[in-house]
Amino acid sequence: MEEFPHSLLRSETPSVTPALAGPRHRFGTTSARGPRNAQCRERGDPCSRPARRGLMHIHKTSSAQSSCRLATEALSGGWRRACLLPRGVYARRGQPAAGAMAGSAASRLRVLVDMDGVLADFEGGVLRAFLARYPGEPHVELAERRGFSVREQYRRLREDLGAKVASVYESPGFFLGLEPIPGAIEAMQEMIHMQDTEVFICTSPLLKYEHCILEKYSWVEKHLGPEFVERLILTRDKTIVSADLLFDDKDTIKGAEPKPSWEHILFTCCHNKHLELQTPRRRLQSWADDWRGIVESKRRSDAEKECYASLIANGNGQVGNWQRNPI
């Protein structure tokens, strides 16, 4: 039986004996008399007062998840740790709060990372190859790039230039020869070893895919190793892929699913750096930026939402004997 992570369930009250909980996690009970924490008494927190009869008592946790609270229940005069709860939630005794985090605490955060423009320097590769192949033609400097489609911007510059720039990235060897984005390889290698985290590369192949698909696999194996070859997803529609986070340089991602499960983190690239995002959308400036903070904040947010959903619903999925803390 798995132990609930101590980092998520750290309390100022020591646990000395095991207690019954959900099917996956074991929680501890304190002494039978029910300790009163001196610090709580000093600041007047409700944990220094007896619990309401028949109600799960909300005890503010000292863990990093400051927006959650520990639910503890008075059983035979003692306190039983049950579940991390969002603020303001009480659960009636007899409801399955003790195992409410059983599914969510053990769930793994799934992260999708785009390839072109996020891991591989597509824009820089296009410009270098275009200048080499068409040295006398007008071109678009990276600082002047606007809009996701490089082909459309070149076409606006001159009609025939759209086809010419497309011939560059449709050529054999183009995708395999792309340079990694600075810090991308190191970030992926670190991310895949993060606890309770699943990482996949999610990329859209060209419609003219003769060389693109094979070279994407070869690029991943060359720069990230065979482990990531098993984690490469190629799809024209990323909205149908289930995940928690998507790092992608495309500013607008649409598809068959109008409300994708993932949160889109816009990865800054030359063509989107001028865009101003509306709250609550988030941006990652580069792999030197705090991508770890984004991952962990998403993990906390998802845990709180799942815990709250578990606590306000009974076994039938209907709102049961749950009520908000009036405080």
TrEMBL record:
GO terms for cellular component: mitochondrion. Residues 1-51 are annotated as: Disordered. The active site is at D114, D116. GO terms for molecular function: 5'-nucleotidase activity. It holds the Pfam family NT5C. Gene3D superfamilies: Deoxyribonucleotidase, domain 2, HAD superfamily/HAD-like. Signal peptide: none annotated. It comes from the Eukaryota. GO terms for biological process: pyrimidine deoxyribonucleotide catabolic process. InterPro entries: 5'(3')-deoxyribonucleotidase, HAD-like_sf, HAD_sf. This is Uncharacterized protein.
